[in-house]
Design brief:
330 residues, two-stranded antiparallel ribbon, alpha/beta, 42% helix, five-stranded mixed sheet
């Protein structure tokens, strides 16, 4: 084990080897080969090329060096092409701060049964007179920058749950193809995070229509990881155990406190009048497994594979990125 794997559990190291092709004996060589490609793109300013930074991109692309470099280049190109989004990219930027304080995103302290971090969005909380979609996207990207510092999450990845309850047609009308494409480019094409699933719950018909519009922008792999549950929380629980979810999603945990993640980034005594100077470069959020995390993981080890009810979900194929079967809705 190299110093770049220090702090990882033995289970996570094994997972990285089996699922991501991570080999500690060739780790430095793999990193250097990606770094050597930087000179092929003089049009891009690669602001970071240190070992730890490149490693997260290798993990996101299963140590395929060419695909890793493409993602690294796209990461910096996206930032060059959208300079205004990243001009004041810190938690105390007024727009980002408002979005964080309104729960965009929510970040559960509890991991899911596979060790993945769960992000949640309550769409109806979007007050369009207070938060622009761009500021919400910036707050999500900043949060991911903080979270991806944790090497366990680089390997285990993330889950996103979006609750569309009470999300109005008027609110939905502001989700134009242009800004949705910007979000997809930032999250799918330009960030080194492994998303194991994106779950829609309580979505109205017009969200189905929006999904149809954005489908052409989604990679096939991403499409297969989007689950439209409607109001069927049982199908959600087949993929994320209730022990890992707050009560809003039919889970056994207490209701989610919208200020939890904002307090993590802004400080425990945050308020509208106080300014903070933390940036994601200055924050390293790496939480040890809490009791609730262990409970989810332990119950997963004891529990057999969930039974799928006929007519609810259909088996598509096995997802080689995770130990759960990949399921898609009819």
């Amino acid at each position: 084990m190299t110093h770049l794997q220090a702090g990882l559990s033995s289970e996570t190291i094994d997972k990285a080897r089996l699922e991501l092709n991570e080999n500690p004996d060739t780790l430095h060589q793999d990193i250097q080969q990606v770094r050597d490609m930087v000179i092929t793109r003089p049009d891009i300013g690669f602001l970071r090329t240190d070992d730890a930074f490149i490693l997260r991109f290798l993990r996101a692309r299963k140590f395929n060096q060419l695909e890793t470099f493409k993602l690294l280049a796209q990461y910096f190109q996206y930032r060059q092409q959208n300079l205004d989004m990243f001009k004041s990219f810190k938690a105390d930027d007024p727009g980002i701060k408002r979005a964080l304080m309104d729960g965009f995103p929510g970040v559960l302290e509890t991991l899911d049964q596979y060790g993945r971090k769960i992000l949640i969005l309550f769409a109806s909380n979007w007050d369009q007179s207070r938060n622009s979609f761009i500021d919400i996207l910036r707050a999500i990207l900043l949060s991911l920058e903080v979270l991806i510092e944790d090497p366990e999450l680089q390997i285990n990845g993330f889950i996103l749950i979006i609750d569309w309850s009470n999300f109005s047609f008027k609110q939905a009308s502001k989700l134009t193809p242009t800004i949705l494409k910007l979000a997809i480019e930032g999250l799918q094409d330009s960030f080194p995070a492994r998303f194991g699933g994106i779950h829609f719950v309580n979505q109205p018909w017009y969200i189905h229509a929006l999904y149809t519009i954005i489908k052409p922008f989604l990679k096939d792999k991403t499409r297969k990881r989007i689950f439209l549950h409607g109001n069927n929380l049982n199908s959600l629980h087949q993929l994320i155990y209730p022990e890992c979810l707050p009560s809003e999603f039919g889970g056994t945990l207490p209701p989610y406190d919208m200020g939890t993640w904002a307090r993590t980034l802004l400080g425990p005594d945050y308020n509208d009048e106080t300014e903070y100077t933390h940036t994601y470069n200055a924050l390293h959020v790496k939480q040890a497994l809490g009791n609730s995390d262990r409970e989810c993981l332990e119950k997963h080890m004891k529990r057999s594979q969930s039974v799928v009810e006929p007519g609810t979900l259909k088996h598509e194929e096995r997802d080689d990125d995770n130990t759960q079967p990949l399921l898609a809705l009819d």
